[in-house]
Design brief:
By secondary structure, the protein is mostly helical. The chain contains 10 helices and no strands. This is DUF1206 domain-containing protein.
Length: 273
């Protein structure tokens, strides 16, 4: 029992590290920059002017091509890995200010965030090394191989349903303003709190919609045995563009993604870390 308590105390001490907090807050700034670039790519796709893939991988490659881009990629990668470590601690010992189902939900969400932050950090490193291939192509190729195996189409379909559910959950999370429970709202002025709330609602709703569309496309790929539809967020953006009023809808969604990018800057200051 004492060993367990000692391990918990050590984990709590590591989680409360000042350096980890500073790196995590810096990571939110990098995360915001990635989403602003993602939004810009979405606008380019909306009006048929982008050959870059419309996802975070494309955003990082766009950043890497700019002056000081390599330096920024390394800085963003460090911040993202710090965020992953922080969320790992949150999944195990965090969210102490919550109770019941809310606490369970946030811990599960923390596990998902760990995966996302590690993947993005690793992608940033690969882009820095000029070793990042097209992520949408990779996903399509992996899906094609998986569907060729026994039971593979069921696994692809299940993955699509999970992604769609995550997207829908993200939309609900944003519209119900549940993200505010993770913010130090008491330290905000009324104007800042209102702005942060609006940015969070628009940002989570837009991101959730893109994820939900991507998930449904993956399900469609499994049902119709069409791996070309399983290209993740890039396919979701391009499919939306090709619909009636698609460019306008995609431009509005890009504004929502940009709103999330700006919301990340506020998280850097006000997020409970």
């Amino acid at each position: 029992m004492s060993l367990t308590r000692n391990a918990g105390a050590t984990a709590a001490q590591a989680a409360n590290s000042r350096w980890l907090e500073l790196l995590t807050r810096a990571g939110f700034i990098g995360y915001g920059i990635v989403h602003l670039l993602f939004a810009w790519l979405a606008v380019q796709i909306a009006f048929g002017k982008s050959g870059e893939e419309g996802n975070q991988n494309g955003a990082l490659r766009t950043l890497g091509a700019q002056p000081l881009g390599k330096f920024l990629l390394v800085a963003i990668a460090i911040g993202l890995f710090a965020m992953a470590i922080w969320q790992a601690f949150e999944a195990v010992i965090g969210h102490r200010f919550l109770r019941g189902r809310e606490k369970l939900f946030e811990r599960i969400a923390s596990v998902v965030r760990v995966i996302v932050f590690v993947w993005l950090g690793w992608t940033a490193i690969k882009v820095f090394q000029d070793a990042s291939s097209n992520a949408a192509d990779q996903q399509q190729q992996f899906t094609e191989k998986l569907m060729a195996s026994e039971g593979g189409r069921w696994l692809v379909g299940l993955a699509g349903l999970v992604l769609a559910a995550v997207g829908i959950g993200m939309v609900i999370y944003g519209l119900k303003k549940e993200f505010e429970r993770n913010l130090k709202t008491g330290e905000m002025s009324p104007r800042t709190r209102t702005l942060t709330r609006r940015l969070g609602m628009a940002g989570y709703a837009a991101r959730g919609a893109v994820f939900a569309i991507a998930g449904l496309l993956i399900v469609t790929a499994a049902v119709k045995y069409d791996p070309e539809k399983a290209r993740g967020l890039d396919a979701a953006l391009r499919t939306l563009r090709d619909q009636s009023y698609g460019p306008v809808l995609l431009a509005l969604m890009a504004l929502g993604i940009a709103a999330f990018g700006v919301y990340c800057f506020f998280q850097s200051r006000y997020r409970r870390v």
